[in-house]
Amino acid sequence: MISDRPKVAHMAAGRPLIAWVLEAVRPLQPVSMVVVVGHGAELVHPHLPAGVTAAMQGEQLGTGHAARVGLDALEDVAPNDTIMVLYGDMPLLTTDLLRRLAGRPDNVAARLVTSVFDDPTGYGRVIRDERGLVVEVVEERDCDDAQRAIREINAGAYAFRGKDLIDALGGVSNQNAQGEYYLTDVIGILVGRGERLEPVEATPEEVVGINSQEQLSEARRLLQARTNQALMESGVWMLDPDRTYIDDTVTVEPGARIYPGVHLEGGTTVGAGAQVGPDVFAVDSTIGAGATVWYAVLRGASVGEDCEVGPYASLRPGTVLERGAKVGTFVETKNTTLGERAKAPHLAYLGDATVGPRSNIGAGSITCNYDGYEKHTTVIGEDVFIGSDTMLVAPVTIGDRAVTGAGSVITDDVSEGSLAVERSEQKEIPGYSQRRAKRHAAEKPED
What DSSP designation does 2 have? Predict the structure, then answer.
């Protein structure tokens, strides 16, 4: 991956790779789940949900060794328990596939997932007998020419009978090209004992592993396609799904309309009938039913029902728009609440402010909330009209139905229903432009 981040902690469509695997397993309701971690374990731990045990593999001595570490973290394994072993870098595994894998009959020692690849380079090859049962898995580096020509690969996902896995791991050696303990050697040991091994066939897409940034990008594309397909099947309208990027952690209600260039991340929710996009980035934000958000950035913001945001608006954390409020063109908000039908249509900054219902913020107006050391609040009442280019120097309160004159710098509270104007008297100097032109001509050097 050429990255300081452990592979399984890389993100794809809203989840780290390991979380996609655990999410696919979760509906099977396993008795216990163990994740074997090694280098960079401290970066993996935060992505493990409650109830998942992390087992530390101090030395990376191969997949067989990792399986032993994982088994040591399990308690009270009964002989006929099914132990499923999966790779943490296979985010496209599906619950349906894992359910088939886990449905191991009592007379089967192991099931393993296989798939047929057009190009099997890099994968262990599956050797079957005349009955179609698995008799061996050979790592590519140990294949002869005939085995290398086989296109059926071992995906690395297994369901073992507990006693057989524990016993067979004790017989695995590291006498191979890499000097590692291969989990795949368990297959040969079980076959040698006359045990029955069954393949579970998967599509190539389901078993893709991630070993490069390019493969990570492709996995993200496939996961995104799954998410978008599910949303559209639920009643969400998308103009161009290939240009719509919605994390699996996002909730979009049926009837919402999503336009191209939309990125919805984290815990974002979109209500029914909302129109989002074109070109919106929203993370951990709420977009209410019937709202319109376009050409905008939302971070930790809450947009209520029937609100309008954009174009070219930036809603920073703590922004709350109540029903019918509007934040328009080139407006930035932070830690600010706009009451019902309040609006800041264009060219404004509102920080650490409360704006009452139906109030209007004129173009070019800002709350001067920072004195160089501390932040201060601005309170604007109901039905207030803030004239264009008003500077509200916090802390300051504007009473209900008050008005500020355009170009004013308001430093004191304004009482209800009052007009506050703070500007110098306009002066006019006749003939100024002519005198200025003559002065300029006199000062200009001759050619």
Answer: -
What pLDDT digit, counting tens, does each position of 227-252 carry?
Answer: 999 999 999 999 999 999 999 999 99
d(CA 322, CA 309): 12
∠ Cα 122 127 131 (to 5°): 150
Active site residue: 39, 263, 346, 376, which one? 346
DSSP notation for 94-128: -HHHHHHHH---TT-SEEEEEEE-SS-TTSPEEEE
Name residues whose C-beta falls within 8 Å of residue 25's C-beta, 6 or more positions apart in sequence.
33, 84, 86, 95, 98
- Residues 29-66 have pLDDT tens digits of 999 999 999 989 999 999 999 999 999 999 889 999 99
Task: Name the maximum alpha-carbon separation found in the chain.
Answer: 110
pLDDT at 444 exceeding the cut of 80: no
- Kindly report, residue by residue over 249-303, the tens digit of the pLDDT: 999 999 999 999 999 999 999 999 999 999 999 999 999 999 999 999 999 999 9
Phi-psi group of 80: left, alpha or beta (phi > 0 → left; psi -120 to 50 → alpha; rest → beta) = alpha
Structural domains in the chain, CATH included, are 7-207 (3.90.550.10), 213-420 (2.160.10.10)
Catalytic site includes residue 440: no
Contact 371, 352 (CB under 8 A): no
Backbone angles phi and psi of 168, in degrees to 5: -70, -35
Give the amino acid at 115.
S
Whether residue 311 has a cis bond before it, omega within 30° of 0:
yes
Distances, alpha carbon 291 to alpha carbons 20, 318, 327, in Å: 31, 18, 12
Q: How does DSSP assign 374-417, residue by residue?
A: -B--EEE-TT-EE-TT-EEESSEEE-TT-EE-TT-EE-S-B-TT
Going by pLDDT thresholds of 50, 70 and 90, the confidence category of residue 447 is low
**Burial of residue 206, with CB atoms counted within 10 A of its CB: 0-12 exposed, 13-18 middle, 19 or more buried:** buried
Cα dihedral 28, 31, 36, 37 in deg (nearest 10): 90
Token pair of 48 as six digits: 């493990």
